[in-house]
Amino acid sequence: LDLFITSVYEGRQPYLYHNEADGTFTNVNYPAGFHMNCYNSWGAAWCDYDHDGDLDIAVGGNHGGLYQNNGDAGHYLQVEMRGVDANRFAFGCRAEAHAGDLHMLRQVQSGMGTGGCQNMMALHFGLGENETVDSLIVSWLGGDVERYFDLPADQRYIAVQGEGLLNAPPDRSEPEPPAKFRLDPPCPNPFNSSVMIRFAPGAPGEVTIAVYDLAGRRVAVLADGCFTAATHSLTWDASALSAGSYIVQARFEGGLVTQNLTSVK
Question: Residue 7: which domain range?
């Protein structure tokens, strides 16, 4: 995360600091253009207004403006959260992304700074050179936790509490509701050596069913191909695996859904 500090005092400039990823920050006001006609700024908000995957900044106050980020930001992931049991806009909910050596935590906020500025609702994760998010952990108010794995970079998702991750259109418009993909709770659960997993795509299409441990390691691929809209059943023989908690993840054309799974010995 870079750092932008506003100033409420007359004639004082704001300051933009670039995170050098080594515990230090560098003042980049001049190359970023904040030394010209930007002062007495009461608030600011980060947003990807041009939909290019990097964060721009809108500065409020008497002499603010909209500043476009034209730098090479690398890869990214954006997640907009929508609560069901939690509040509709998921204020206070968090998402944690792991990509290579990067570990990032973001929280949905209702406003910040003087003047009630509001960042864009989608949580933004800068991934640098990483082309995959190894794991995404979504924590909802009330204690629900959802985990997703092997997400490609440069994507925008809508996380709906209890319903999974939906692919968001590139133009940020409201996505068309996909055919309802159903991934039933595994049976039995907990299980000893084998377990049945049932799913119904809702519409014909490509489906991948995989199992991950909580560290994000993929331990099995149960299905990978084109399936009809009907209900399908898979039996997984996990007798060689150690006891523990696992995640069953179904990836389909509209997004991803998961179910928790526990192995006992």
Answer: 3-67
Domain stop point among 14, 34, 67: 67
Does residue 175 fall inside a structural domain? no
pLDDT band at 119 (very low <50, low <70, confident <90, very high): confident
- The total domain count for the chain is 3
Please name which of 167, 174, 184, 169 lies closest in space to residue 254, comparing C-alpha atoms: 167
Specify the length of the chain in residues.
Answer: 265
Peptide bond into 190 cis (omega under 30): yes
pLDDT digits (tens, 9 = 90+) for 137-187: 999 998 999 999 999 999 999 999 998 998 887 665 665 655 688 999 999
Q: What CATH number has the domain bearing residue 250?
A: 2.60.40.1930
Coil/strand/helix, residue 260: strand
User: Over the stretch 223-233, which tens digit does the pLDDT of each residue have?
Assistant: 999 999 999 99
Digit-coded pLDDT (tens) for 76-107? 999 999 999 888 999 999 999 999 999 999 99
SS3 per residue for 56-116: EEEEECCECEEECCCCCCEEEEEEEEECCCCCCCCCCCEEEEEECCEEEEEECCCCECCCC
* Final residue of a structural domain among 67, 100, 118: 67
Task: Give the Cα separation of 247 and 149 in Å (integer).
Answer: 9
Dihedral sign for Cα atoms in the order 84, 258, 254, 90: positive
